[in-house]
Amino acid sequence: MTHFGLQSKNVVITDKGTSKMMAACVEVKGELIHAVHPYGTALECEVFDYADKVIMPGLVDSHVHINEPGRTEWEGFNTATQAAAAGGITALVDMPLNCIPVTTTKAAFEEKLNSVDDKLWVDCGFWGGVIPQNIDDLDELLNAGVLGVKSFLIDSGIPEFPNVEAKDIRAAMPILAKHDVPYLIHAELDCGGFNDVVVSDKYNSFLASRPKSWENDAISLMVDMARESKELGDNCKIHIVHLSSDEALASIATAKSEGLRFSAETCPHYLTIASENIPDGKTLFKCCPPIRENSNREHLWQAVTDGRLDFIVSDHSPCTPELKHIDNGDIEKAWGGISALQFGLPLIWTEAKERGFTLVDLARLMSSKTAKFAGLDSIKGQITAGYHADFLVFDPEVSYTITNEMIKHRHNITPYAGRQVTGQVQHTYVRGHHVYQQDEFINAPVGRPLLKGKL
């Protein structure tokens, strides 16, 4: 059985529900945290001393598109989970699209599970999908082990994953409430009137084609649906993915104040990039909903600070370079999605530290709260005895420039190439296994599927 210790003058530990940074020695036995001791405690095993580097709980990223099976030329479990490990992410949750088949039936989910053997460098949970055609299959899909489900209120870009309407949501919510899992919503409604916007190579033309009102109206609809669910006695958990519009924050705050089970996330690209700084013709910045103005970005940071936004996830949504139309700058035809899975922590830390956030705060926003959201909080998201021995070792001081050569996900493209950041993940441990060290992967993949009811 594995038995070792990690120690540092700066360890983010959780004790009786409260997290703090302190000097500590973490003892690992097998795949679990055995105990947290004072720094310098003599143990009957090897102790790795990381001095003043920060030992944090491994990150939990609950929004990742891995695209396997079926579109592995876009990404895949091996490369995506390597990028995750390089970013200090020790558990992620895979989205039900853009794989083929989409994860909307038990059979499709089993096909996905069969595709992960010997490919997972970190642990991996899975979201299912709700489409108009699969409401009757939801019980079976949820019993198979998905951690929750996702729908689109607008065209997903994938024909086999059509959007839902209010009647579909009403039919799904009692089933999801019975299983007590979150219902993730891509919240944009095509309100019309903007389809005549000509999308050119100007980023602002794309921004004008997907206005804030699309998000605002979609989120207002979901607040109404959540109220209805509560009145019916179900009180289904509703979660807004990748929030971009600051104008929707008031609706989210109202939902929370009413006691609805309503949450929302945002992503590094909405917090670290402003539309004013996006060069025209740079399709790598295209995502849906779009990256908005700097004033909008500042309002999102305020909402992260005060809790209207619950946590931060990557929404890693890669594709082939060809589908990004990098050479011709065709924003309209380019696939929408940001590739940056391994860079989330340094990107956010670079901005957050200037705003008074600590690494204890980031452990909450990118680990413990995401673990709780995905139903993994009994094993993931904190350094506490009995939890999985998932750690990252972080140097919060080192500054460097992100380059394409650093990239571990399948295609070495990202809108962050050339960006200066502070903070570097130097080591990653998954359930006590040292999987990543100073830009190198160690041994073989040790990750495993995380299935609801079988954690």
TrEMBL record:
Homotetramer. Catalyzes the reversible cyclization of carbamoyl aspartate to dihydroorotate. Residues 54-433 form the Amidohydrolase-related domain. Belongs to the metallo-dependent hydrolases superfamily. DHOase family. Class I DHOase subfamily. Belongs to the metallo-dependent hydrolases superfamily. Allantoinase family. PROSITE patterns: DIHYDROOROTASE_1 (PS00482), TATD_1 (PS01137). InterPro entries: Allantoinase, Amidohydro-rel, DHOase/Allantoinase_Hydrolase, Dihydroorotase_CS, DNase_TatD-rel_CS, Metal-dep_hydrolase_composite, Metal_Hydrolase. It comes from the Bacteria. The gene is allB. One of its GO terms (molecular function) is zinc ion binding. The keyword Zinc applies. GO terms for biological process: allantoin catabolic process; purine nucleobase catabolic process. This is allantoinase. Its cofactor is Zn(2+). It holds the Pfam family Amidohydro_1. GO terms for cellular component: cytoplasm. Its EC number is 3.5.2.5. Keywords: Hydrolase, Metal-binding, Zinc. Pathway: Nitrogen metabolism; (S)-allantoin degradation; allantoate from (S)-allantoin: step 1/1.
